[in-house]
Write a structure and sequence with these properties.
Elements: E1 7-11, H1 16-26, E2 32-37, E3 50-53, H2 59-69, E4 73-76, H3 83-88, H4 90-111, E5 114-120, H5 142-155, E6 161-166, E7 169-170, H6 181-190, E8 195-198, E9 202-203, E10 206-207, H7 208-221, E11 225-228, E12 235-236, H8 237-247, E13 255-258, H9 260-263, H10 278-284, H11 291-302
Parallel strand pairs: 1-2, 1-4, 2-3, 4-5, 5-6, 6-11, 7-10, 8-13
Antiparallel strand pairs: 9-12
This protein binds NADP nicotinamide-adenine-dinucleotide phosphate.
Length: about 300
Amino acid sequence: MEGQIKKVLVTGSNGLLGQKLISKLSARTGMQIIATDLGDNLNPSIEDYEYIDLDLTQTTRLENTFKRIKPDAVIHAAAMTHVDQCELNPEACHKVNVEATETLARLCSDFGAFLIFVSTDFIFDGTAGPYKEEDQPNPLSVYGHAKWDAEKIVQSMTTPWAIVRTVLLYGFVPGLGRTNIVLWVKKSLEDGNKIKVVNDQERSPTLAEDLADGIIAVLMRKREGTYHISGSEQMKIIDIARTVAKHWNLDESLIEETTSDVIAQPAKRPPVTGFIILRAQTELGYKPHTLKAGLEVLDKQLKGV
Ligand SMILES: NC(=O)c1ccc[n+]([C@@H]2O[C@H](COP(=O)([O-])OP(=O)(O)OC[C@H]3O[C@@H](n4cnc5c(N)ncnc54)[C@H](OP(=O)(O)O)[C@@H]3O)[C@@H](O)[C@H]2O)c1
């Protein structure tokens, strides 16, 4: 891909990944960053970038914003990410996760901007994880279908694109809209609440900073195609919960082992996902934290160190 990237538009900048991206990108000199999300900016302590309150489903506003900014690259991290809400409200999910991505893909093509789309392990059915980039998607949920439909739109672009898929993000940012496995287990056990955690699903948990670094490596190297960027450890979700309990010396007996059938969430989860990250390791120099090391990073952030 030709040309230097000087102006980057980041969608979903208030989210877990988005806030990490803004922090890391704004620490780089010589790059103009424009951040967008719904509502107020949750990252106001960082200066030197423009924030725009923009609902990506408002197509005309998105088009006008894009035409004004003319970014060299777009990192599209915004999404309706609550999997059960997507299942219960498929139209809203389609609007945000497919239609807004389609508009962005069209605008990127029209203006020659490099599009990096953030996708998910939920495009796979979880019968044959861990997955590599070439494995065949077969989504089980409305969310998974929407992300896969959006991927196909991105893949059909004739201008440069990359898809970065990830798995079970964890981390902390101020004003976090939704919790994640690590913060949920930690808070529940600290409050003395019993929790039920599944023993029949496996993931490779991903520290949000690692994903942000991987995406920035794709951006700076202008790497095209699909990348699997996750943690390197394949773990049962129950073992993730136990690792969290041990790390903060919390009462493990509050964790009750259960199965997906028993908790019966609205959206079906793929049993075993997780990623083979060899491509990211060899082409991007990607080196994720272990879960234990990731929890240490998180601990320092929570203590304000
Ligand atoms: N979290 C995971 O475990 C995981 C796993 C695999 C892939 N991913 C993907 O990784 C990306 C980042 O995930 P994340 O955990 O950082 O998500 P997140 O914290 O939920 O952030 C997503 C952001 O997108 C915003 N958004 C939703 N609808 C929008 C709209 N119509 N217009 C503009 N912004 C909108 C959300 O705002 P509101 O909060 O106000 O709705 C939120 O701030 C997503 O594409 C997700 O699908 C995440």
